[in-house]
Amino acid sequence: MVQIIFWDWIEFAVRWIHVITAIAWIGSSFYFIALDLGLRHSPTLPEGVKGEEWQVHGGGFYNIRKFTIAPPDLPKKLVWFKWESYATWISGFALLAIVYYGGAELLLIDASVLDISVTSAILLSIFSLALGWFLYNIICKINIGKNDTRLMLMLFLMLVGFSWAYCHMFSGRAAFLHLGALTATIMSANVFFIIIPNQKIVVADLMAGRSPDPKYGVIAKQRSTHNNYLTLPVIFMMISNHYPLAFGAQYNWVIAGLVFLMGVSIRHYFNQKHAFNLKPIWAWLVTAFLFVSVILLSVLRPPPANIDDELSLNNNHGSALELAKYEELADTIISRCAMCHAREPLWDGLAEAPGGLFLETKYDIARNAKQIYVNAGISNYMPPNNISYMEPSERNLIVEWFENYY
Ligand code: HEC
């Protein structure tokens, strides 16, 4: 079982990297948006300077100026902000592959949503991410120079479309994650294909003493504004994995749509505040209204899943049935875990199975073998505080079962 432990640590390491690089990316993005909006012009500034801001941090004062026309002596060394974004995407895709492609049968596919093979599910996942960028880029291009509101509306409809499609293709949990991944792919691709190349053209022009076509700046600015509005929903989608109330609802795709709107209303408040010192309280009222709607929608549950062992064990999971034939083990797990990990938990204070994880039938047990092994076999993380008095011999049984059959 060295392999399982190895992969678990690899997954942890990649997740660690992903969270760190994402913090760096989002941090610099928020910083520059606020800085840009906070720049103030004054007549004493040299020509070509759009504005400046004074900041205090870490025991010193910073005077930052934004040049829209190249200063006479543009230094050779320019700091570019791009690796944060690329590293976030690369580590994110690696994590998606380890968790959802590696564990496709358990996490990506939900036969009650769409019964597809592991290969089709993985291909659909990769294809959809590429399609998202392709459509987004086209929508932006045909709208360039036109009404910005119309563009935002079209992009919103596109995201809702993907949200519907994902929720009818993958498990709820994977659907939300994919929506986050699709949006984050758009954001990274904006940096890679549009923002940085445009900036390079502008810098080259400035260095050569030519005046750059302002359209490059306009396009880059538009894309970076989209990135700004998309950040908050992406983070919601990425952490939604811990909240089955969000991804497991019947209208989970509507919830996802409302989350995108919340991202816009929250950012709007801060953007107005940084730019004009306004405090549009109504933006928070809208956010609160959207959030309450999300909560109300989350209690509309899908019709109960078919938990009849024989019926749910379709051909896809035939081999899993064999593994679940360990009667004693099944009895142990059901008696120690199912009071909480059930479709209708008996444990006081639990509205839903923690982590959306059910351990009520042999089928559930076969599907979640690795989770059981890691959380209750080789570690005693579960049951929490050993609340249901699991015996050491029962843990040994889990370890023996898993190591023999998987
Ligand atoms: C008293 C209720 C309770 C019992 C009994 C219980 N669990 Fe849990 N389980 C939880 C809670 C609460 C969490 C969420 C913990 C967290 O988020 O840190 C959880 C989380 C988990 C997770 C992680 C799910 C995820 O992906 O987020 C696994 C796996 C798990 N339990 C397995 C088991 C197994 C196996 C048993 C029986 C041996 C068991 N649990 C018994 C309450 C329980």
Verbal overview:
Strands 1-2 form a two-stranded antiparallel ribbon. The chain has 16 helices and two strands. β1 and β2 form a beta hairpin. It folds into two domains: 89-298, no CATH class; 309-405, no CATH class. 65% of the residues lie in helices and 4% in strands. The protein has 406 residues and is mainly alpha-helical. The chain binds heme C. Heme C binds at residues 333, 336-337, 339-341, 347, 354-355, 357, 359, 371-372, 375-376, 382-384, 387-388, 390.
What keyword list fits this structure?
binds heme C; mainly alpha; 2 domains; 16 helices; 406 residues; two-stranded antiparallel ribbon
Write the SSE topology:
Blueprint: H1 2-38, E1 49-57, E2 60-67, H2 83-101, H3 104-108, H4 118-142, H5 148-167, H6 172-207, H7 214-239, H8 244-247, H9 252-276, H10 281-298, H11 309-312, H12 318-323, H13 327-337, H14 362-367, H15 369-377, H16 392-405
Antiparallel strand pairs: 1-2
Bound molecules: heme C (HEC).
In round numbers, the mean pLDDT is 86
What count of structural domains? 2
Structural class: mainly alpha
Number of strands: 2
Largest beta-sheet details: 2 strands, antiparallel
Unreliable stretches covering 5 or more consecutive residues? 305-318
Please state how the strands of the largest beta sheet are arranged side by side: 1-2
Bound molecules: heme C
Task: Give a short summary of the structure.
The chain is mostly helical.
